[in-house]
Amino acid sequence: MGTIRQKFQENKVKWGTRWPIFVLANNLPFSITVKTAPPDLEHPVYVRTKTTDITTFIHVILDKEYALSFNASPKVILDCGANIGLTSVYYANLYPNATIIAVEPVESNYNILIKNVSYYENIIPVHGAIWDKKIKLSIEDAGTGHWGFQTRESGDFDIQVQAYSINDILKEYGFNSISLLKMDIEGAEKEVFESASDWIEKVDVVIVELHDRLKAGCETAFQKATNEMPVKFVRGENHIAARKGLINVSSDIQS
Q1: What pTM did the predictor assign?
Q2: What is the mean pLDDT of residues 14-29?
Q3: Is the CB of residue 146 less than 8 Å from the CB of residue 109?
């Protein structure tokens, strides 16, 4: 909590006009959903106090960990593992003319996502998971908070969700290419990138958090899938791969 409290104090203005309410709510002994209005965003966002939503808000909205310097504005953004929609909202404010597809498998997260993206006509919410094929998956709570749910093809878990491949999403919404593929799917990236041969040529830029600590082989699958992308670097927890000339590499590495 010390780090979060420090972030509150350091970023009073960035949290928005409701930041005192936000701080008070986060000190309650239970979690509630609160609204905050950061000045960098056109519309307010909702987060659940005393959950990983707060850290996600810090990473995405305050620290801008998904910022990329595109040489031309992206047209289609696929947000896999959209959580409560903060990354989609962040991109919608940066690129209001882009179509953003926000895919989230966990119902409790998706319910907050729906509220957050409801202000933006260019964000399409999808309750589902990303996998290597269209199939029903089990959802496992790994006990690491709202951002740590994992999907499995088999298991004795009561909660199931419809999963889609990257091509399924493209076909469903009538797109031929993806300008930016953002992925944070708790190890499922291994299966997704292992099946990338039929869709990776349609993707311009990838930003992904790899989870080899949860499932061995994630980075190997990512590196093999993006072998033809000459621009590669790591920033924080994210691996970035891009085709030549699409992003300002020097600016992105330093940010």
Answers
A1: 0.88
A2: 62
A3: yes
